[in-house]
Amino acid sequence: MSMPLQISRRANARGALVAGLMLWVIGAARPAWAESTALPSPLHLREAISLARAQRAEIAAVRARTAAAHQVPKAVSLPDPMVMVGADHVPLRLHGLDASLQVQQDFPLSGALGAKRRAAEADVAVWSAEIGTTTLDVEREAASAFLMVVETERMVALTEELSALAKQALAIIRARLQGGDGAASDLVRAQIEVLRLEGDVKALQADLRSASAMLEAALGQPVTGNNVACALSTPTRAVPSLTAVVASAMESRPELWAARARATREGANVDVMRTMYKPMAFVRGGTAYRMTEGPGVMLMVGVTVPLWRERLRAGVDEASAMQSMAAHDVLAMGRMIEGEAGAAREALAAAQARWDVARDSLVPLSRRSLSLLLASYAGGQAPLVSVLEGLRTLREARMPEITAEIRVNLAWLRLGRATGKIEATL
Q1: CA of 422: how far to CAs of 63, 404, 417, 418, in Å?
Q2: N or C: which end of the chain has fewer CB within 10 A?
């Protein structure tokens, strides 16, 4: 019982040593995308997209898969030769033997190797297009998380501004009460409004930390729990025409490239199946030794006979059906891309119109109204309820303005994803 126990302990020690060496090698060869980067402050949208593109492991994974696909066409070659050693005749008296050493090589009598190589090269194109698709998705996720942080930051700033205005109204009420003018109920109502806004600020600050954590994850960064300061510049250029948007989408979308590459691959697979109708040749040669005649050489040539035509036809029909499906997928993908690009363009126009109205009309009027109400209340010409209503009106105008601006940026982001050029639209 002691010997197996000693062997087991030695094996465990060797296993621990090997595991430790593997961990050391992995740590030494840690990929660049696994390293964290200090975020600039403030962080701009283009910087966020660039960081996500450089650090997200999803892109590194699909690049590695594409690198693996690049090796498949190189592996398409003739079958390995076969070496055979035979004792053809061994007499029972063991006074000699007949022996042979042969080498056999198979050769396809068709274009099977070329068709298989074309199919493998088309698969490389599919995975190369997948790099573009994954990159676009990563960029969109990072930009969406960035815009969520910006929206929350602006909501915090708005609520703090409203809280300051409510405290200003509260100070006016206290001054009027000290002068013997005003009502204690107004003081209570103003205090309630201040407390409500202060509570909203605390809640929004927690939302900001949550949004910052999501942004750090979307950038491939470790989550620190700290707020990420972001700076946003909303595009002010004109909405592109529908014709330009659709043309850009049909030219640049990697999903369409992948669909076309899959159609090419299925066409090559049809050619592969059709080559099965042709035979496979083999050549076998080597040396032989005979007890009676001595050493010599031997040569054999043969071909396979593809008799089972029904099975071969079934394989060709299956491959042809897959080719037809891939061709229809290309058409369907093109139509969906056209529709997505057109819908993204119109959604951008709608978001831009809403933001223009909120920014240029609603917010300035609400600010002016609140200023007039505060002045009137200080002069005793307006009740407190009018001031509180003015605060709510300003809030109801500013919050849609913030949301509308974020939606404009999201609409540009969606348009960039639909056309396959996210960074060019920001």
Answers
A1: 20, 20, 5, 8
A2: N
Question: Within 10 Å of residue 88's Cβ, how many Cβ atoms?
Answer: 11
Cα-Cα-Cα-Cα dihedral sign, residues 391, 396, 401, 402 = positive
How does pLDDT run across 115-160, given as a tens digit for each residue? 888 888 998 999 999 999 999 999 999 999 999 999 999 889 988 8
Based on the number of CB atoms within 10 Å of its own CB, is 35 exposed (0-12), middle (13-18) or buried (19 or more)? Answer: exposed
Rounded distance, CA 215 to CA 232, Å? 14
Where on the phi/psi map is residue 378: left (φ > 0), alpha (ψ -120 to 50), or beta? Answer: alpha
Using the structure block, give the residue that is written with the tokens 């087991």.
Answer: 8
Contact 403, 156 (CB under 8 A): no
Residue 180's pLDDT is 67
The CATH number assigned to the domain with range 45-425 reads: 1.20.1600.10
User: Would the CA dihedral through 326, 327, 330, 332 be positive or negative?
Assistant: negative
- What is the reported pLDDT for 5? 37
Q: What Å distances lie between residue 125 and 79, 114, 261, CA to CA?
A: 25, 17, 6
pTM: 0.77
Look up residue 327 and give its amino acid: A
Report the alpha-carbon distance of residue 226 to residue 211 in Å, rounded: 10
CA angle, residues 280, 281, 282, in degrees to nearest 5: 125
Pairing of strands 230-231, 82-89: unpaired
Residue with tokens 């139509």: 335
Instruction: Locate 268 and state its tokens.
Output: 């090559």
Q: Which of 85, 79, 107, 84 is nearest to 283 (CA)?
A: 107
SS3 at position 370: helix
Q: Is the separation of the CB atoms in 245 and 345 below 8 Å?
A: yes
Q: How far apart are CA 195 and CA 256, in angstroms?
A: 55
Closest alpha carbon to 406 in 253, 248, 230, 239: 230
Q: Which residues contact 357 (CB under 8 A, 6 or more apart)?
A: none
- 81: three-class secondary structure by DSSP: coil
163, 198 contact by CB (below 8 A): yes
**Cβ atoms of residues 273 and 309 within 8 Å:** no
Per-residue pLDDT tens digits for 153-196: 988 998 888 888 788 878 877 877 776 666 677 778 878 888 98
Q: How many residues does the chain have?
A: 426
